[in-house]
Each structure stands twice: as structure tokens, then as C-alpha cells.
Amino acid sequence: MSTEQNSPGAGVVAADANPSGRAGQGTDSAVASKDLRRRVVTASFIGNFVEWFDYAVYGYLAAVISSVFFPEADRQTALLATFAVFAISFFVRPLGGFFWGHIGDKLGRRKALSLSIVIMSVSTFCIALIPGYGTIGMLAPVLLLLVRVVQGFSAAGEYAGASAFLVEYAPANRRGLYAAVVPASTAAGLLLGSLIAALLSSVLSTDQLHEWGWRLPFLLAAPMGLIGRYIRTKLEDTPAFRALAEQEESAPKAPALDMFRTYRKQLIIACGAVLLNAVGFYVILSFMTTYLSEELGFGPTESFLATTIALASYIGFIFLTGIASDRFGRKRMLITASVLFMLLTVPAFMLLDTGNFLVIVLVQILLGGMLTLNDGTLPSFLAELFPTKVRYSGFAVSFNLSNALFGGTAPFMATLLIGMTQSKLAPGWYLVAASAVSLMAVLFAAETSRKPLRHL
To answer: Which residues cross the membrane (predicted)?
Structure first.
């Protein structure tokens, strides 16, 4: 019998304990008060927002950072080097996924999330303090790389942990909507980063921006991180985890190893399903600003403004997708996203080269809206693929493995493919390939939205 069904001392009944087998029909919809769920949503939103603001600022200021840390290279080589540092920091994320997955499944979701936000904030703050190449030479990019590696390790636990936290607190028939808070908060962090980058680009001279202006957003990391940690430490862990913790014989000693032994099929499906999110997120919402300015010749302010508008619309679309995934199912939404990207991405990139600012904004809104069909569904889909005892590990390992191989490398690959093919459509074709792989993975998955978590 599932341990989640037998937890008389847990204080609340686990969200997994739905004996009826019908979403929304069990006790989970009544066990947590509206006030508690509101605080859970707020904590998840703010914490994830802080982490991804920290992580995104680097991408938006890549062109400036490249001139500060790689001034002796030509413009494209310097940009490639900057994105290579961005990509290398992702390679540590699978390791971070194992670490945070173990902490989250063994010691609790709240402990993992509270610790990860501190590490991220401190490492981001340190970026603002690194002298440029002109001051300390090659030591500058080396220090930048080390700090970025720490950032990558920290970020590996955030997205998965926040998603598991929300899904395990959510009513069974609204797990998709609750989990959509995670990509919405991620986009909100990107939005603030974009607004600050646009503001700095418009009010500071080029010399001021390169000398000290680019450091300002990184300095915000420390106070924002402290706020996020404080909010998270005021919450109890999820009902599902507390119920599992009371049944010590059911809790695996090594959750990640248990996941590999028992849930290999789910892990492969999850890695494939994440691919479109990994490539799409970083191409459309992070790299696009650089693409518009460096490849299409738009000014920094126009590029940031277009991305900012797209991000704002993306946040709204995310919640609609979460609602739709609860109604129509995770699998249908993920398949629709892949098919639309395969059909429309290359034509959309053709329209970006028209030089018309309004067209560019509309195309970015379209691409962002298509991406939300995947991004808004993925957190609940991945969390539902794995049972409580390995949920954090399964989500964290699959999500970070795909992001390490294809997400963090997306800006680098897009820039490299443009240089190799001499085609500005290369990022679009890269997205098409990622969509095809995700489609194949999702086709092999079972529908999870209408099943209680304990049966999955």
C-alpha cells in the first residue's frame, strides 16, 4: 500500500492520497487552506524569480560582458567566448541535479530550495566584483567561469524543486495551473532583467555601461536572495514528503540510484520532452536580444524592448496553458507545441529579417506563445511522471541533463550555426530539430493529468 495513504501524524493528508483514483475527488483538495496555498505559491514564485533574474542578467548583457572579459578578440569570437562560459556553467547542472534531487527527496523540498537560493545569490553578487580583463588579464575570465559554474550548480535544484513543491500542495484537478507558476516566475525574472538592461542601455553612455553600469544588476542579487530565503524558511514541507518521511522503510537511501533502477523509461521520456523547453527557452527568451542586435542590426534599446514585450505576453499565456493542460491533458498540449514549432519556426525567423519593428514584436509574441504550450505544461508533466520518493531527483536529473546538453549551449550553437551556414535562419532550424525530438518522446508517454500522484 502506498505510504502516502498512511500518515496519521503528518498534520495534513498527502496530496498523493486520493483513493478514488479521480483527479480532484480525493481529500487533497481540502487538506491545505487557501492561505497556506497562497503562501506556497508566493514563496515558489519569488524564490524562482530571484534565481532566474540572477541567471538571466548574464544573457542580456552578454555583448557588454564579452567586451569586458574578452576585449582582444574580434566581436563574434568574443561573443562566442561569452556564450561558451554561459554554456560551460550548464555542464555542472546534471551533477547539481543529482545533489539537489538527493537533498530534496531525502531531507525535504524546503531545505533544498532554501539552500540553493543562497548559493545562487552569493555567486551572482560576486560577478559584480570581478575586475575586467584590462585589470587582471586572463584571471578575469577564469574567475567569471568559476562563478558561473557555481551558479549552474545552484540553479540545478530550483526549477525542479519549486515544481515538485507546488504539485504536491496543489488540488489534484489544478496541478497544471499551480505548476505553471514556476515558468511564469522564471519569465518574470527574465522580464526584470530585460527591463534593467534596457534602462541601463538607454540612460548610460557606452563607456559608462562598459566600465561599471553592467555590474549594477548583479549587485541586486544579495538583498533579493535574502528575501527569497526568508519567505521559504517560513513554510512547512509538502504533505506528500512529510507523509513519506514518516514511513522510513519506504524512503530510498539513494533516491537517484533508485530512480535509475526503477524509472529508466520515465527518465528517457522526460529528457526528450525537456529538449524543446531547453532550446526554445534560451533561444527565444534569452538569445533573441543578442540576435536582434548582433545579427539583424537593431539598436540595443529596440532589441530589449521587443524582448520585454514578448516576455510580458509569455507570462500571461503561461497561466492559460496551465489551465488548458488541466482540462485537455499534458500530452495533448506538449504534442501541439512540438507540431507548431516544426511548422512555424522557420517562417517566423524569416519575418524577423523584415526590419519592421512591429512585425518583430508580433513574431516574438507568437514564438513565446507557442513556447508556453510546452513550458506551461512541462513542470506538472515531469512532476507527475515520478512518484513522491524520487520526484525531485527524477525531475532535477532529466531537466538539468537536457538543459546542460542543449539549453545552456543554445546561444552558443545558434551563433556558431549562423557563422557556419551564413544563414540567419539557422536558429530556427535548430528549434525545429529540438521540437521533433520532443515530439517523439512525448508520443511514448502516458497521460498523467487525470491520475492521482500515488498511482504514477
So the answer is: 52-71, 77-100, 112-130, 136-156, 177-200, 212-231, 267-292, 304-324, 333-351, 357-374, 395-420, 426-446
Nearest to 382 by CA among 333, 450, 330, 339: 330
CA distances from 84 to 149, 207, 395, 400, 414 (A): 12, 25, 25, 17, 12
Fold of 35-233+252-445: Growth Hormone; Chain: A; (1.20.1250)
pLDDT one-digit tens code per residue, 74-131: 666 777 777 777 677 778 888 999 999 999 998 889 889 888 888 888 888 898 899 9
Question: Which residue in the block uniquely carries the three cell numbers 489551465?
Answer: 323
Q: Which sequence spans correspond to the domains of the chain?
A: 35-233+252-445
Instruction: Name which of 250, 174, 252, 258 is nearest 6 in CA terms.
Output: 250
Using only C-alpha atoms, the chain has a radius of gyration, in whole angstroms, of 21
In the chain, what is the straight-line distance between the N-terminal and C-terminal CA atoms, in Å? 13
Q: What is the C-alpha to C-alpha distance for residues 284 and 279, in angstroms, rounded to an integer?
A: 8
- CA-to-CA distance for 134 and 132, rounded, in angstroms? 5
Using the CB atoms, write b or e for 300-320: b if 16+ within 10 Å. bebbbbbbbbbbbbbbebbbe
Angle (CA) 101 107 110, round 5°: 80
137: left (phi over 0), alpha (psi -120 to 50) or beta: left
Of 332, 322, 343, 344, nearest to 442 (Cα)?
332
Read off the C-alpha cell for 196.
Answer: 534593467
- DSSP label at 390? G
Q: What is the identity of the amino acid at 405? A: L
